Amino acid sequence: MKKSCLTIISFLLMNIILIPVFGQNKPGVITDSNTPLHLLEPDYNIPYGIPEKGNIKNDLDRILAYLEDATPTKLVDKDSGKEIKDFNSINRNVSISRGDFRLTSYEWGVTYAAMLAAAEATGDNRYKEYVFDRFKFLADVRPGYMKMLDDYGNTDSQIRSVLSPAALDDAGAMCAAMIKAGTQNRELQLDPMIQNYMNYIMHYEYRLFDGTFARKRPQMNTVWLDDMFMSIPAIVQMGRYSGENKYYNEAARQIKLFADKMFIEERGLFRHGWVESADFHPSFFWGRANGWAMLTLVEVLDVLPENHPQRESILLLLKKHIHGVSALQSGDGFWHQLVDRNDSYYETSATAIFVYCIAHAINKGWISPISYGPVATLGWNAVSTKINDKGQVEGTCVGTGMAFDPAFYYSRPVSPFAAHGYGPILWAGAEMIKLLDNQYPKMNDKAVQFYQTEQKTSAPIFSLGGRDDQIVSGSTRKNKSNPVILLIGDSTVKNGSGKGDNDQWGWGSFFEQFFDTTRITVENHALGGRSSRTFITEGLWNKVLPGIQEGDYLFIQFGHNDGGPLNRGRARASLKGTGDESEIVVMESNGGQEEVFTYGNYLRKYIRQAKSRGAIPVVLSHTPGNSWEGDKMIRNSETYGKWSREIAEQEGVYYIDLNNLIAEKCEEIGKEKTNELYKDRVHTSYDGAILFGKTLIEGIKSTPKLSLNQYLKK
Length: 714
Hints:
Elements: H1 2-24, H2 53-70, E1 75-77, E2 83-84, E3 94-96, H3 106-122, H4 125-152, H5 157-163, H6 168-184, H7 191-203, E4 222-224, H8 226-229, H9 232-242, H10 245-262, E5 263-264, E6 269-270, E7 273-275, H11 287-303, H12 311-326, E8 335-336, E9 346-347, H13 348-363, H14 369-384, H15 406-410, H16 422-438, E10 440-444, E11 447-451, E12 484-489, E13 521-524, H17 534-537, H18 540-544, E14 553-557, E15 582-586, E16 593-597, H19 599-612, E17 616-620, E18 628-629, E19 632-633, H20 640-651, E20 654-656, H21 658-669, H22 671-675, H23 686-701
Parallel strand pairs: 12-13, 12-14, 14-17, 17-20
Antiparallel strand pairs: 1-2, 1-3, 4-7, 5-6, 8-9, 10-11, 15-16, 18-19
Helix pairs in contact: 2-16, 3-4, 3-6, 3-16, 4-5, 6-7, 6-9, 9-10, 9-11, 11-12, 11-13, 13-14, 13-16, 14-16, 19-20, 21-23
């Protein structure tokens, strides 16, 4: 009995163990052994990937169709509902027809501006005509309603804010949009309304003692972040409209006043409210208000003159804000109602504003497409899901005051009739179309990536192949025993792709002709614009080094590009000298840190790593520029030439003073003939490159014990 029980138990255990094993081998079961699991389709909650421009346009068209129907432009008799076509007959019984949205709200000011942007991005004039039709309507009915206001002290509520603005909400966004439209179409006759709006903003809006735009609610002397957008874009637009610098200066001043009170540096975010009498200002980072602030900075930078003294500080503030906001994007692409609180709901209008601003900043060249292009793309994919079949925008928070507790923000309702969502999503879609026109996004390893050039590969995972002219290091080697001469340097060694673009050549393009190529080959790995530092930091040296083997020759020529700023612009400079000192710099391009070494230190790295592979380094001083003092060509014998020589001597490698050899040659033939060798102060023509190469060969021949001589043509 005991034996039988044990047999049964053993049988069951075997089957329990074996069943999963057999299951793994069934056809159609995906395992790590038969499938690259990283290529499985993720289960996204929203569409992921690169949107099609045609689909974006369809989304925008659906919104336009809805808004055309939802915002009529006609007068009606209050009693009969009959349309009134004679605008001279306006009286107290005539009203503007009601649709789903007001024609004169600040939300619709945003929508009008976004419609103009959509027209520009898509080439579809229907968007522009939407704006022109409604602004013309307002201009046409204004005189009649102004007379009614003068006669009776009241008028239609829809147009009262146009005639007699009483808050920034009434004036700012509408004024900015009218300036944009009026600039495009002078026949609209918008100037009276523009001037009226601006007069209110500049002279009648309530302010703090220091001049900051403020409100008397919910507390006395409260600053609302929203008011940045309700005022400043209109002011800066007025600067361009009028040509008066005072408006530019006031816009820049207001940004500083708001930022000093509202921007939290360590978070990269703006608080929603600030109260003058408060000891402590609670920092509630409401999404849409941060959107208004970011949109303000973008609008100002679009107009503010390049030479304005505050422009750089405003641009820096924008970059900080974009960085702070981007870090808080959800995995579904949306931003939250309170952007830093993941348990608050996804909010459409804020997300759309951020998408527009980030995409616009990329298109303007203010921020990196590599870093922020995927952020904008993910955000657009998210908000596009909020456009329903009717063309309504869902998930938008209704109008929101300023509070000192989180529950207020968490509990604000959402509605497709919240007008705040339409302009932002139109603006976002328009800018995404421009982004896709200007940039080169591509899916790589299931992720959205932005590239500097078009990637034509269809591979699901790919590496960047580098330059079209790039040679795989060591690939020209005839056989295992034949050496290779590898050249590294700048454009004086290899200009452009090495094919004589703009009739400019580097001496390295013709260097091979001096050698017996049955026994040795030449590979020109130089690249224009690089320095001893950037040839390393850009990864170029790491591509050359693996192909070097024992018996090869490495020619090193830098110096032309090693001066200039350490962290600004092209940021390619090395420290002067040959010592071991270094300096930590913060790179302007990306905010990251880089340790910068001396010119000699970089050369030392090339030399030592090449020698570790058994190669023979040859250090060259850089070619001279076509600059003279009298009959003498200017050398750089006390800077890069000197440091090149010192490093060669310290490391016990060959040194050829190419700078001096060429200068002597040019002095022999004179300035006039030398000019024919140069295409500009530095770069050489075909004849110049040939002569410089011949001069280097002479230097090789006169260098004692350099074994390369045996490979020269007889």
